[in-house]
């Protein structure tokens, strides 16, 4: 059977139509982009190029389930731009995954890599699936078949996936193993960097699993130092207790900051005296969610969002802080762990209310930075100590933080727009230097 029978690749040349009645996620990204492009007077040709994705790959592929039934799945990989280097970005397994969502997430990856000065372009992908409905062996077969269907659309020097929502190092190991079977035996050792976020034994890097949370912790620490704000006994609320959320919580413990409310897909919990992060981590491992955690009370979504605290770390899905929910927040800082948690209209509400934001493309960029370190170690057959990974990560993030701060001052604008301007200035310069073929 031809597994790539339904691959569609297209190069875009016009603007996208509205795909839903409400503003789509991609349109939200473009709203942020246009605001920054107007302010910095981005070159009109570069603006046209960056407004579109390079390639959009959709694959439909069959997988045999445990009960011998065959089910068809739909997977996506969108490659937004690769002027700075190979495409890079995560893979998400979630029912919400569609072309629009992946397009938006791929575009954010381009800005993120440009902002942090990584030699990467932006991509994202995923499968439209609720993984909770499948066994581990089915997820393995789905992952392997998806990897095979993507074929040469991914590659160690071309497009390098990594974990995102509902994917992890195990899934990266299966992808690696499957990809390697498709290349000649003598080339296999040169292809281990086709995915990052791998288990250590399969070529992963120390510090990669915690990297996004580590970056968020560095950002909060730096913000607090600059505002002469003591984190000792300060409070925060956290949405999402997966890779990003749980690592952020574990790393913030060293600052003695108190976690007072957590929400995930199973519900929200609250304890004004502080939630024991280690106990919650164990509990979530056993119960697959925060609901029912002892020594806490269950609260509803609005009560969770209204919880009085110093900091809110959204680390779940996009569009959680909307025009409707932004007025509920009772914090002074939003440190964005998730991609796109705040809608453009909500940005305005938070700004009016004096709530500061460390924007996603800066705040959660630790993950792609350490993915880059993993990729480099694989290419050079090196293995870095954790202290080396963390030191280099902090250097890169602090440089990005400072450049956003400087641009915000120069343009008298908010930090999200400033972060975009830093990223787009770099991309604009490259296009100016290289020119447009032919
Ligand atoms: P994950 O699958 O490990 O965890 C997701 C968490 O969000 C889970 O706790 C889940 O219960 C919760 N969640 C899902 N839907 C929710 C909802 N509607 N309301 C409340 N909670 C909900 O995923 P992750 O890797 O931690 O990614 C979380 C976010 O961080 C995503 O936006 C992702 O794109 C972004 N991100 C991840 C990385 C990374 O390295 N994994 C890097 C940068 C950004």
Summary of the model, kept short:
The chain is α/β, with parallel strands linked by helices and 438 residues long. Among the domains are: 3-11 and 51-192, Rossmann fold (3-Layer(aba) Sandwich), CATH 3.40.50; 211-363, Rossmann fold (3-Layer(aba) Sandwich). It has helices spanning 25-40, 44-50, 99-115, 136-150, 169-181, 211-226, 243-252, 277-287, 301-306, 344-352, 360-363, 366-380, 386-411, 415-434; strands spanning 55-64, 70-81, 87-94, 121-128, 159-163, 235-239, 258-264, 267-270, 297-299, 311-314, 333-335, 356-358.
Distance between the termini: 39 Å
Major sheet characteristics: 7 strands, mixed
CATH class of the domain at 211-363: Alpha Beta
> Would you identify the regions where 5 or more consecutive residues have pLDDT less than 50?
1-20
- What is the H-and-E element order? HHEEEHEHEHHEHEEHEHEEHEHHHH
User: What small ligands are held by the chains?
Assistant: nicotinamide-adenine-dinucleotide
Percent of residues in beta strands: 15-25%
Helical region count? 14
Give the SSE layout.
Layout: H1 25-40, H2 44-50, E1 55-64, E2 70-81, E3 87-94, H3 99-115, E4 121-128, H4 136-150, E5 159-163, H5 169-181, H6 211-226, E6 235-239, H7 243-252, E7 258-264, E8 267-270, H8 277-287, E9 297-299, H9 301-306, E10 311-314, E11 333-335, H10 344-352, E12 356-358, H11 360-363, H12 366-380, H13 386-411, H14 415-434
Parallel strand pairs: 3-4, 3-5, 6-7, 6-10, 10-11, 11-12
Antiparallel strand pairs: 1-2, 2-4, 7-8, 8-9
Helix pairs in contact: 1-3, 1-14, 3-14, 4-5, 6-7, 6-12, 6-13, 12-13, 13-14
The protein binds nicotinamide-adenine-dinucleotide.
